[in-house]
Design brief:
The chain is of the alpha+beta class. It is about 30% helix and about 35% strand. A seven-stranded antiparallel β-sheet has the order 3-4-5-9-8-7-6. It has a three-stranded antiparallel β-sheet with strand order 1-2-10. The radius of gyration is 22 Å and the shape is globular.
């Protein structure tokens, strides 16, 4: 009887360990935050520890850059991995931690693959030359790391690029950019991630995961 009781106790003890492990797993923090613009069927994810930039701060930063994003029916959102998140990290050599910015905006006309490549930051030689001739583009020493045409399906198509630029002062920054349009070329979908190049190199797998998570389902 004693041996039978001990066996039952052992089984129950084992169940207790399994239940405790299950509860602990159930209480673990989520791995990712999932972001969506449901009206445009657009989704992506960032690590759960990243912080969302407030809409007001993001709008002020975009306005300071002379951008019309956040207006005219656009949707935009930004997340920062920095312990002290700041909208200025959107376009700053002080981004020592990864930063992600996404937006959806209406299009008035179709864009070629090269025009898609040059959204936000120029990638093509023609786009870079045009910015340089404008006299106000501060970034230099462009270096293309990856350029890929992508067709996720349902007529959605675009480009994925990874590239480096150098800020005044000599700080190199690496950018990952996904730019898509829908089958009817009526909407533009953009995700860009970046940080200084040493940071990007250290977090490349994580940033690649974010870029590959960018999903658009064409209406």
């Amino acid at each position: 009887m004693a041996s039978k009781t001990s066996r039952i106790g052992g089984v129950l003890g084992g169940l207790g360990v399994l239940l405790a492990a299950g509860v602990a797993a159930g209480c673990a923090a989520p791995q990712f935050t999932y972001i969506a613009d449901s009206s445009a069927n657009t989704y992506f994810k960032v690590p759960y520890s990243w912080h969302q930039i407030s809409g007001a701060s993001l709008a002020a930063q975009l306005k300071s850059l002379g951008s019309t994003l956040g207006q005219s029916g656009t949707w935009d959102i930004a997340y920062d991995a920095a312990p002290a998140p700041a909208a200025v990290h959107l376009s700053s050599p002080s981004a020592t931690k990864p930063f992600a910015f996404a937006f959806v905006a209406p299009l008035s006309q179709p864009l070629s693959d090269d025009r898609l490549r040059d959204v936000l930051l120029p990638v093509t030689s023609a786009g870079r030359l045009a910015e340089a001739q404008g006299g106000i583009f501060p970034l230099t020493h462009f270096h293309l790391l990856r350029d890929k045409l992508i067709k996720p399906g349902q007529g959605v198509h675009g480009v994925a690029d990874t590239f480096e630029y150098t800020y005044p002062g000599g700080i190199a920054d690496t950018f990952g950019k996904v730019v898509l349009t829908n089958a009817h070329s009526t909407l533009l979908y953009v995700l860009i991630v970046h940080c200084i190049s040493t940071c990007y190199s250290q977090n490349r797998a994580q940033l690649d995961t974010i870029m590959s998570s960018f999903t658009v389902r064409s209406p």
